[in-house]
Amino acid sequence: MQRLPVRQERLATAEESEFFPERATMQTTEKTQQISYFQEILRKSIHLTSLTIPIIYSFISRDTALLLLLPITLIALVGDIARRFSPFVREIVHRYFSRMMRPHELDSTRFLLNGATYVLMSATLCVLVFPKIITIIGFSVLIVSDIAAALIGRRYGRRPFLDKSLVGTLAFIGSGILVTLAIGLLVHAPLALVIVGSIGVVVGGVVEAASIRLRMDDNFSIPMSIGLTMWLLLFALEPALRFRILELLVVR
Fold first, then answer.
1. What's the pLDDT tens digit per position in 202-221?
2. So where are the chain's domains?
3. 0.85 cut: is pTM over it?
4. How many Cα neighbours within 13 Å face the side chain of 60?
5. Are residues 1 and 218 in contact, defined by beta-carbon separation less than 8 angstroms?
6. Which residues pair with 161 in a beta bridge?
7. SS3 for 138-193, per residue?
């Protein structure tokens, strides 16, 4: 779920359009995908309910989580496909959910998944690929920090950073570090986990800010980039400490 980049408020100059035509095209495309701030708040309030995924996962095993996530993700994916090819399904979706969807998600001429489907797909993949504590941190940061970045960045963002605003990216990183610290305190984790998670948050913030040029939905790119960063950094720790961290919240 992408927050509106500050760059769409300034069209590319003639010189920029001549030497960097892709920049002008990107800005024009972004400008057509704006929704109102109230719609953004409504969209993010729905997004907040996804926080139930890492909360529930902290109490159940990986196998149980997959048993829950896989069918729900499949239903969402089939629904998106049906929306593309079935006028009846498309009309139902547009009637009840169009106010919360971005224009590109409503575009029937292209096959694009909506943000909710990407959330479910990324959650399923994270549970499959990453250790439990990494998935919980990465996904919690996705939900909380994406909301903070979108609302704060859109309201107060003036200076651009990559494809988004600098203040929005700072809001993402700041809230993400707080989320990591809170989870670390709740599970009595070693300080090393908070440090590793905070580094992952910074990487995730940069990836989120560059999501347009990367052509990736940030519901997918954020948890994956945070998870990969944390997973790699944990290998730099001594084995005993790494094992202690990876065993956090594991339900057998």
1. 999 999 988 878 888 888 88
2. 6-246
3. no
4. 15
5. yes
6. 164
7. HHHHHHHHHHHHHHHHHHHCCCEECCEEHHHHHHHHHHHHHHHHHHHHHCCCCHHH
